[in-house]
Amino acid sequence: SGSGNKWIFSNSGLFLLDIKSGVFREFRDPFPVNDFKGDGYLYWARTDDGIYLYDQKENKLSHIQHDFCQLAKVIFYQNKNLIWFSNNSMTGASLGLNRVIFTPEYFKNYPLVSEKNDIPAVYAITKDRSGNIWVGIRGKDPLIKITPDLKSTNLKIPQYNTSEDPGALRSLNATPDGLWIGFFKELLMFYNFNSGKFTRYYPESYNFR
User: Fold this and answer.
1) Which residues 6+ apart lie within 8 Å of 111 measured at CB?
2) CB 168, CB 138: distance < 8 Å
3) pLDDT tens per residue, range 117-165
4) Containing H/E element for 158?
5) Which DSSP letter does residue 131 get?
6) Backbone angles phi, psi at 140, to 5 degrees
7) Could you tell me which of 187, 172, 180, 165 has the C-alpha nearest to residue 136?
8) How far apart are CA 48 and CA 11, in angstroms?
9) Residue 14 in contact with residue 47, Cβ under 8 Å?
10) How confident is the model over 184-208, as pLDDT tens digits?
11) Alpha helices (H) in 12-129, listed in sequence order
């Protein structure tokens, strides 16, 4: 390691050399991640505590619990999101070859501003060229703008609250100049990004969806 300590990474534990006695003793303290700089992968297993995996480049320590691996035999860390291991049951029966895929954190939770005690049912989503997310939800202010830094703003649509029966916001389509907004019934709007103004358009058919 970086501090000069000597370690053994094995399928029966992690061991640190005791310089005075010359004995590698099992190490159960928190793993010193800052002592292992690099761009590789380190791994070990414990017979009672599963498999531990350390990605040096990402500085990330992962743990596969004992219930999912029992007695690990051979471990192969293929890349940061994929490992292979073979294992036996606690009674010695072979459990075969296993593959573990770590799912990257693709998903983000975006805050939605809605009416009090109302569930923000989402009916339409689009993204403009500036990276803003536009969301159409149920409620009296159905248009929400979410900026790349996750700030949410409800935009007031004047014609929506004065229209007799616009229905729910069902369609959003971003263009370089603005945003087309279609409601379930007769209301069709265009929002201009530069002026911040809404313009209403009238479809010929009252059955327009």
Assistant:
1) 146, 150, 152
2) yes
3) 555 678 888 989 999 999 888 777 788 898 888 888 888 888 776 666 6
4) helix 158-162
5) S
6) -75, -25
7) 172
8) 11
9) no
10) 877 888 999 999 999 988 776 655 5
11) 66-69
